[in-house]
Amino acid sequence: MTAPDPSLLSLNTATVRAQWALPEIIAGCVRHGIGRIAPWRDQVAQAGLADTARRIRDAGLALSGYCRGGMFPALDAAGLRAARDDNRRAVDEALTLGAPCLVLVVGGLPKDANDRPASKDLAGARAMVQDGIGELLAYARPAGMPLAIEPLHPMYAADRACVNTLGQANDLCDALGPGLGVIVDIYHVWWDPALQREIARAGRAESAPGASRLMGFHLCDWLVPTQDLLLDRGMMGDGVIDIPLLRSWMEDAGYRGPHEVEIFSAGNWWKRDPDEVLATCKARHAAVC
Ligand code: ZN
Question: In angstroms, what is the span from residue 216 Cα to ligand 1's centroid?
Answer without folding.
Answer: 9
